Amino acid sequence: MSCGIRRQVATEKTIYDTDDPAIWINPNDASKSIVFGTDKNTNGAIYAFDLDGKIIEDKTIRGLKRPNNVDLEYGFKLNDSVKTDVIAFTERENKQIRLFSVPDMKPLDQGGFKVFEDAKIPEGNLPMGIALYKSPVTKKLYAIVGRKTGPKKGYLYQYLLTSERLGVKAKLIRKFGAFSGQKEIEAIAVDDTEGYVYYSDEGACIRKYYAEPEKGDKELACFGGEFFKDDIEGIAIAKYEDRGFLIVSNQQAHTFNIFDLKTNAFVKELNLGTVETDGCDVTTANLGDKFPNGLFVSMNNKRNFFYHDLSKLKLVE
């Protein structure tokens, strides 16, 4: 039985179809952090919202060809002396991923990086999910990308992002990840510090692999499927000093299932008021007076996103 929790903020509405959020923590003033969210359409956008849920127009990227999922990372090295935070997102109809600096929102990709170029089946080259992984050992930045459909082995592609004299490049490093063949793989999340990638095989389970390519492609876990009504969707990772959690959208039940990050054990189910949630994101950082205990953001099918102070989810007592 799930418990209901009332939202604290609903963002302003997008034009078309919200899908996936990503939270950028402003290093100079956390109360001025930004929530980015995709608006999935042929003339779609990456919206930027403040912590009141208001659209920040000069940080919003418009005119995109069906942006699907978005993720971000901190401290991408452009050269020996310059680093920038970045967002990456899939642009499905252009069969590519995009990379922009944050918070100045400048493109770093010369128009985009093509993905799944060797796909052999229809819709096998249409990117959907994306997660960024910054290796704690090598400091290399990777994009792990899912797609509309693909083979039962090697469904995900992992690209190394590097900055060179002529600009940023994306190089295919590996193909990995099992697929049940039942629906699709969209939601992907990475635990940077532990080096694990989790993704939703929508009709089967949550799958876990090493994010570090050198550690191999062996599946580490396939869990949780029995707790979902139908589609297993968006994944967010909440990490505290002594414990971590996976928050996963139980889409058709309009709830979220919580799992222990270390053991993969089911913890509880929550109803946060969103309907048909695709993507979600979370931070345990103090974001100032509005969200001093951290922030959980979830997509709602009314063309907006909901914000919850993380303490309301009662992950830790």
TrEMBL record:
At the top level, the lineage of the source is Bacteria
- Organism, by scientific name, is Jejuia spongiicola
Q: Which positions fall inside the BPP domain?
A: 1-317
Pfam families on file: Phytase (PF02333)
PROSITE patterns in UniProt: BP_PHYTASE (PS51662)
Put simply, this protein is called: Phytase
